[in-house]
Write a structure and sequence with these properties.
The complex is a heterodimer. Chain A has no helices and 12 strands. Chain A is mainly beta. The N and C termini of chain A lie far apart (about 40 Å). Helices cover about 0% and strands about 50% of the residues of chain B. Classes of the chains: A mainly beta, B mainly beta.
Chain lengths: ~110, ~110
């Protein structure tokens, strides 16, 4: 069975400093991996996705993630945090062998201090 | 293009009452998903439709939850009777399975059962 583990439930950074949100996955197959962001009272928005092409994936708003098969990791990074980045972030794996349903991690809440 | 529409946005009911949620997908998206997101957790798939047929409802509590997608467009999710633990945000997502782009999420319906 596929699963994802987000290693931090809450991350706090200062504006202008780097962001690192950690995610490990478990999959029996070549996985599709995603990062979604959820701002308060808003729908989930796709940040980026990995589908077995380039291992370094660039997304929206300056975020990127690197797929490391040897470490089964898919960490999300951004060089410089902005106040508007404060939100809940979800690492997600897609079970392509079961109709493509998404399996979400528990989420990481990102706080950005001025 | 218009996004996924959901209504109502908020609903408060008492336990043992019934409630229904509605989802209108992005035009042309044949695949529709309902997720349940309990506070502090990632979304969990309840049911997946392909057109008007059910692909996966293994996580749907069928003694109280039901869903339909007549004519393969709009979908409704019903809970009858509701329990306190059903308090959550119910998210609808749709996908164009032909292009396999990504799942687009609606804003969700926040349900509080008292």
């Amino acid at each position: 069975a596929q699963s994802v583990t987000q290693l931090d439930s809450h991350v706090s950074v200062s504006e202008g400093t780097p962001v690192l949100l950690r995610c490990n996955y478990s999959s029996s197959y070549s996985p599709s991996l995603f990062w979604y962001v959820q701002h308060p009272n808003k729908g989930l928005q796709l940040l980026l996705k990995y589908t077995s092409a380039a291992t370094l994936v660039k997304g929206i708003n300056g975020f990127e993630a690197e797929f490391k098969k040897s470490e089964t990791s898919f960490h999300l990074t951004k060089p410089s945090a902005h106040m508007s980045d404060a939100a809940e972030y979800f690492c997600v794996v897609s079970d392509d062998n079961q109709g493509g349903k998404l399996i979400f991690g528990q989420g990481t809440e990102l706080s950005v201090k001025p | 293009e218009a996004g996924v529409a959901q209504s109502p946005r908020y609903k408060i009911i008492e336990k043992r009452q019934s409630v229904a949620f509605w989802c209108n997908p992005i035009s042309g998206h044949a695949t529709l998903y309902w997720y349940q997101q309990i506070l502090g957790q990632g979304p969990k798939l309840l049911i997946q439709f392909q057109n008007n047929g059910v692909v996966d409802d293994s996580q749907l509590p069928k003694d109280r939850f039901s869903a339909e997608r007549l004519k393969g467009v709009d979908s409704t999710l019903k809970i009858q009777p509701a329990k306190l633990e059903d308090s959550a945000v119910y998210l609808c997502a749709t996908e164009d399975r032909v292009s396999r782009e990504t799942q687009y999420f609606g804003p969700g319906t926040r349900l509080l059962v008292l």
